[in-house]
Structure formats: structure tokens, C-alpha cells
Amino acid sequence: MPEIYASIACNLDAHILQASLPLFEEEKVEAIEWSFDALFNFNEIPSWFTELVREFSDHNRLIGHGVYFSLFSGKWSPEQQEWLHRLRKVSNEFHFDHITEHFGFMTGADFHKGAPIGIPFTTQTLALGKDRLRRIQDACRCPVGLENLAFSYSIEEVKKHGDFLNQLVESVNGFIILDLHNLYCQVHNFDIAFDEIVKLYPLDKVREIHISGGSWDKNPLRGNKKVRRDTHDASVPEAVFQYLRKAMRFCPNLKFVVMEQMGTALHTVERQQMFRNDFLRMSSIIESSNLDQQHPTNTFAPVSNFNINEPPLEDLFLHSQQVQLSQILENASNVDEARVMLQSSDLANTAWKVENWAPYMLETAISIAHKWKNGFS
Amino acid sequence: MNLLKKDQFTLAKNIMKVSKSVLKAVAVAVTVTTLASACSDGLIKPGGEKTSKTKTFDNCPACGMG
């Protein structure tokens, strides 16, 4: 595997920067991942933050992680066009080693404010995803990747996610982010072993790994078991460090391992110290694997054999289903009500397979949709 | 012995040094921001002021299970 950089998700957030500053000073942070689109709505960025990002950019140690594009929205939106325009602009200003986005479509009024929710794995959605990835790559002109989603409605969906991601990114010689805490969620939420689930992903296409912490939700629909959520507000679980050790061995093209945590969870000195301790532990795991460096088998260089001037692909029936699903998740007061609404919607008896959705995961989806209903701001 | 040499080489290669002036500017900005409001959520708006308590910002709000 190539050199692997111990990285942090670094954004314009006082607590994250406070927690990270000693690591920067000790030269422990080898790269940063910046959610560049979180600042698209601001006219100017403080020069000191720009300079920090530029230092990493100038040393080829900057990667970009988009949040708001909503890859699988069935209808092409002006916001997506504007997002691409801004990505092109920011890519001219900074050198990103690669750009990534999330799988799924976003709930919320305009599909750019809510939480990402999965989509059915069909030839139509595959074509839609490929179209969007090509447009992202055309705008940033660097390797492009997608992150595995933490949320799934069913074990069937969990088992097919890796293969679908593989088919998607192949079209742009792309890669995947393997988020190990997302897998940790699925291990617990669907009672599947990590060793079983990880082999369902195209590990030769992993260029980036995420680790983070999360939280447990009590859910009566699961009996005594809790639902694991990827809330990024706690220390990295021991099991996730063990997953990292295991997974790295099977990812020959891995280049970045990123630790993520919410700034809102780093508001005390103690929590900031725990963040640094987790980072140093991650760093030591990477250092030991860096002893076995080899050349990458794929650099995920952009491809250029597609015509981006064609109109964006749309699936208006999918869009209609997404509108209905968003409304159900945001307005249903409980699972029973949501199930009745789903059965009378255009999602019933379709590739969405709403009939097979685990009730406790439907309740979790309702909870997530309610949480992010009004967006991030 | 070879292993040790390779290890040292690797570590030297991976180091990312951020200039002292940039680190100092970040430290000052973060300190000023923190002192300005100890109870706000921490997101710094361009221009230096803090966002209101109602503004929430997630490092990565879109990973799916937040």
C-alpha cells in the first residue's frame, strides 16, 4: 500500500481547531479533510483558516469531503448546478488530492438540508449516480469517491451496498471511503459479523478510511438491544480501532485515514484531550502498517471519455417517491403511522421494498429526519 | 537495522509541517472566539464572530446515522 496519512476532519470550528492545534504543532497531523461546501453560503472565509487549508493544499495533503450535493436526488436541482460551479471554483483555488461525497439522497424541503437516506439499488439509480459522479469529476478534475452509508433499512440492503458502490465508482475510475464506524453501526444494528460485512466491499477501491464515535439509542422495537447511531459525538470505540487494524491489511490503495468528530462534542478540555488520544492511537496503528509500503495498484486518476454537455439524467418518478418518503419520515409521529403511510404511497410494492424494512430502523429514520428537518443552520 | 532505517525514512516523509505564523494565527483566532462566548456551538463565521446557539454544525452531518 502507498504511504498512509493520519488525518483529521478539519473545519472552521473553534472546538475542532482547539483540539487539533497541539497535534498540528507537534506535526502529527499528516493531512486534513475539509468539508468545503459547508462554507459555500459564506461570502468570505477568514484568511487564517484559508492559510491553514492552503498549507495542506500546497503539500498535496488536502482532501475534500462534500456534504450537500445529494447525489441520488431524482430531479436535477439548481442547487446541484450551483454546487458544481462552486466546486470548480474551489478546486481552482486549492489542490485537492481527491473529492468525496455521500451515498444516498437528502431529506428536507429542498433535498439539500436533511439527512442522507438510502435509495433502491436498480439500474435506474445506478445510471443516475454515474451521471452525477461524472459531473463532480468534471468539476474537480481529480479522483472522486463515495462513502458507504451508515443507515440501512434491512440486512438485504446492507449486504448489497458494497457491490453497488463498486459499480458506481467504476465509471469514473473512482474509489470508496470505508467508514468503519458506519460498519460498526451495521454490525450492531443487523447482527452481522465485521469479518463478514467487510468482505462485501471492494477493498481494492478503498483510498480513504474514516473512524469516529457515536451513540446508542434505546428502541423498544428491538427488545433489549439498542440501535447504534453515527453521531460523531464520542470517543472511537475499541472495536473500531480493531477494525482499522484488520481492514488496512486488505486495502492496497489506502492513502488517508481520517478521524472525525463533531465540534459540538469537543467543548471541554477533557474531551479535547480524548480526541487527541484517539488520534495518536490511530496514528500509531497507521505507522506500524506504513512499514509495509508498496506502490498503489490504482491511483484513481480521472477519466475523460464522457460528454458532460448532455443534460443531467433525471428520474421524475424516483423524485416523486423521494418527496413522499421525506414527507412521511418528517411528519409521521410513530412507526405504525409511517408504515400505513408507506403502504399507501408510490413506494409500496416497488424496488424500495418498504415491506421488508426493519421497524426499529424505520423508527431511527424518522428520528434522523426529524432531527435534520430544518437543516444544519 | 534495515527496518529501523525504513521506519525513520517513512516517518520523515509523512511529516506535515505547518508554518509557525499560520499556527499562531489559528491559535489567536480560536482563543478570541472561545473567550467571546464560552457557551456557543463553536462554529466560527467568516469575520470572526460566533454563530448563535441555534446554529448547529456537524463535522460530517451526512454520514447517515446522525
- CATH architectural label of chain A: Alpha-Beta Barrel
Order of helices and strands of chain A: EHEHEHEEEHEHEHHEEEHEHHHH
CATH topology of chain A: TIM Barrel
Q: Runs of chain A with pLDDT <50, length 5+?
A: none
Q: How far is the N terminus from the C terminus of chain B?
A: 47 Å
Residue-averaged pLDDT of chain B: 60
Main beta-sheet annotation of chain A: 8 strands, parallel, barrel
Average residue pLDDT of chain A? 92
Provide the descriptors you would attach to this structure in a database record.
heterodimer; A: about 375 residues; alpha/beta; TIM Barrel; 8-stranded parallel barrel; two-stranded antiparallel sheet; 12 strands; about 40% helix; B: about 70 residues; mainly alpha; 2 helices; about 45% helix; about 0% strand; disordered N terminus
Structure characterization notes:
The complex is a heterodimer of chains A (377) and B (66). In chain A, 51% of the residues are buried. Chain A contains twelve helices and twelve strands. The longest helix of chain A has 22 residues. The radius of gyration of chain A is 20 Å and the shape is globular. Chain A is 42% helix and 13% strand. Chain A has a single domain, classed as Alpha-Beta Barrel (TIM Barrel), CATH 3.20.20.150. The mean pLDDT of chain A is 92. Chain A has an eight-stranded parallel β-barrel, surrounded by six helices. A two-stranded antiparallel ribbon of chain A has the order 5-6. A two-stranded antiparallel sheet of chain A has the order 10-11. Chain B has 66 residues and is mainly alpha-helical. The longest helix of chain B is centred in the middle third of the chain and has 17 residues. Chain B starts with a helix and ends in a 30-residue tail after the last helix. The chains are: A alpha/beta (377), B mainly alpha (66). At the A-B interface, strand 1, helix 1, helix 2, strand 6 and helix 12 of A face helix 1 and helix 2 of B.
